[in-house]
Amino acid sequence: MCWAGNINKDRLLQLVYEEKTHNKIPYKKHTIHKWGKKKCGVIVNDNLVLIGDRVKGIKQVLDTIDGAGANFTQSSVMGEWKQIPKHAFLKIATGNMSDIVGGAGPSAILKHSRMALFVAMEKDHNLSLKLKLFAKNKEVAQNISEIIKGFLALGKIKIEEGSSPEYQKLARLANSIKFVTNKNEINLDLKVPVDDFMFILHTLGID
Question: From its phi and psi, is residue 151 left (phi > 0), alpha (psi between -120 and 50) or beta?
Fold first, then answer.
C-alpha cells in the first residue's frame, strides 16, 4: 500500500521504534522497518510511505519506484495517480488488494480485485471520496459490483428504518454514493458536506 501526503517522518519512526518486535532491514538506499507478526514498511521520502505484510513485496515496489521494475509505474493505477488534484489530502494506492484485505467477511470480495486507488479531497466545504478497483477481468468486476450493490442496498434499507437526525444524514450520505462499473474497473464516488461527514463520524464514536 502506498500512502502519500504530508508525512511526519519523525512521529512515524517514533511509533515504529516503540514496538518491541521492531527491527531494521537495510535494502539498497532504503531502510525497511519490520514489526509485529507480519507488518513492514518503509519511508521512501518526505511524501511517500509504503506499508505491507511481506518484505518481498515492499522490495518489489521499491525496485519499481527506483526504476528497476515497470509493472506498477506502467499500470493504469499510476496513470490515475498522476492525475490526482494537488489539493487531495489523502491518496492511497496498492498493486495487490490480497495483501491488505482478510480472507473472511465482506472485505473478502476485494481479494478478487488487483490494484486499487483511494483519494480524499476537500473543496468548498465538501468532502469528496473516490475508490477505484481494478479487477482481473470484466466478469470478475461484474461479480464484485453486484456484491457491493447488494451491501449498499441492505445498508440503505437499514438506514431508512430510522427517523432521527443521524439517520437522515446517513440517508443523504448513502444516496450520494455513485457506483459505476466500466469493463474491469469499479468506481465508487461520494461527495458530502464536511459538517455532515464529521457529524456521522462523531455519532459512530469516531473523533
Answer: alpha
Report the pLDDT value the prediction gives residue 32, as an integer from 0 to 100: 95
Distance between CA atoms of residues 101 and 51, nearest Å: 13
Both 207 and 122 in one domain: the answer is yes
- Greater confidence (49 vs 60) lies with 49
59, 104: one domain: no
Statement to judge: residues 33 and 91 lie in one domain: no
Domain identity same for 113 and 47: no
How many domains does the chain fold into?
2
For the CA atoms of 161, 167, 170, 171, what is the dihedral angle to 10 degrees? Answer: 50
Q: Are residues 62 and 86 in the same domain?
A: no
Grid cell 451491501 — which residue? 151
> Using one digit for the tens of pLDDT, what is the confidence trace for 160-190?
666 666 667 777 777 788 888 888 888 889 8
Residues 144 and 126: their CA atoms lie apart, in Å, by 28
